[in-house]
Amino acid sequence: MIEKKTTPRHRGIYLLPNLFTTGAMFAGFYAITSAINGHFETAAIAIFVAMVLDGLDGRVARLTNTQSEFGVQYDSLSDMVSFGVAPAVVMYLWILSTMGQLGLFAAFVHMAGGALRLARFNTQVETADKRYFQGLPSPAAAAIPAGGLWFCIENGYDVENFKYLVLVATITTGLLMVSNFRYSSFKEIDFKNKVPFIFTIIAMLVISFVMAQPQRMLFLLFVAYAASGPIVTLVLRKRKLQSRKT
Q: What was the pLDDT predicted at 32?
């Protein structure tokens, strides 16, 4: 009996989506090094760059049909660096370090919240409702302190005047990531379908406002998104109770 020779299969990874993931992780790392060198505005902008790259890697993977388990896990590790560690370190070096152990605790809560959020997301990715995120997504949680920092520096505000507000905001974003509040994932929106012309005008106005005052508008948009979680959760619970009664 002649044995057939089987050629060994070489395991590899998809290059294109993982390049975006690597870019997002580098942006998070760059934010940390910028904060260490005292360039806090650059650090905040780097976190937003990481958000853009993080949003692109998954879309590129779906468009090119290059999704993989490796990509999912690599993306989570990148998110931990960019949206868990980076915001915590940046905020600590910016103002929280002046508050002693309390500031250290606040920075750790944000970082730990990001780690727990990502771990929970990975374990529930197959069973979770795709329309909603459970807990505030880590990029949005990172955008709030980063946006606030950028807004303060751009307008010349003295952060010493409201450092306790920064402390509370840092802790709150960490807790919101591990909360059970539901946040819209916007995945039910089909960008391929036709929409009324008015939506194009609204989108143009929103983009114009953001581009005109990015540090202010991005901060306000993500604060509004963070506040939407409790509202959406309460509305869904109310509907559920009404359906049970009927």
A: 97
**Are the C-beta atoms of 42 and 2 separated by less than 8 Å?**
no
Cβ-based burial of 25 (10 A; exposed 0-12, middle 13-18, buried ≥19): buried
CATH 1.10.260.40 fits 15-186+194-245, yes or no: no
CA–CA gap between residue 132 and residue 135 (Å, rounded): 9
Provide the whole-model pTM.
0.85
**By C-alpha distance, which of 125, 170, 116, 162 is closest to 143?**
170
- By the 8 A CB rule, do 177 and 113 touch? yes
End-to-end CA distance of the chain: 72
- Reading the block at residue 41, the tokens are 């505005």
Mean pLDDT of 88-104: 96
